[in-house]
Amino acid sequence: MKIFIERFNNICDDFDFKPTSSKTAKFVGIPTSTLGKYMTGSMPSAEAILKIANAFDIDTDYLLGKTNIKNRSKTIINLDDLSSTEVTEVQKYIEFLKSKH
């Protein structure tokens, strides 16, 4: 739950919102009192997580701490203009970077 609170706070900061403000509540479509409960440790429902993710255009997995990528759909790399050899090199480099962690 701590990761959700941290990530929600960070996303709100990105948008210059306070996590429990009426502005945030209206933006995500969740009552301010409910947002306040999340900030004190109550687990949001799946529906609430989806509302928050959709409002801020982020992945639910990011909010839940399953990935550090806020929006995976924005991280897709277009390799169409590369040759098959170049694509293979890119794939090898990605695997190399993954192995370092």
Structure description:
GO terms for molecular function: DNA binding. Residues 25-63 form the HTH cro/C1-type domain. InterPro entries: Cro/C1-type_HTH, Lambda_DNA-bd_dom_sf. With 101 residues, the protein is an all-alpha fold. The chain has a single domain (2-72), classed as lambda repressor-like DNA-binding domains (434 Repressor (Amino-terminal Domain)), CATH 1.10.260. Helix content is 58%, strand content 0%. It contains six helices and no strands. The longest helix is centred in the last third of the chain and has 16 residues, at 84-99.
* Coarse structural class: mainly alpha
From the 3D coordinates, which CATH architecture would you assign? Orthogonal Bundle
Q: Helix and strand string, N-terminal first? A: HHHHHH
**Strand percentage, roughly?**
under 5%
Instruction: Using the coordinates above, name the CATH class.
Output: Mainly Alpha
General form: elongated
Instruction: Give the % helix.
Output: 55-70%
Largest sheet: none
Q: Radius of gyration, rounded?
A: 18 Å
Task: Produce the secondary structure layout.
Layout: H1 2-14, H2 22-28, H3 32-39, H4 46-56, H5 60-63, H6 84-99
In a few lines, what is going on in this structure?
The chain is mostly helical and 101 residues long.
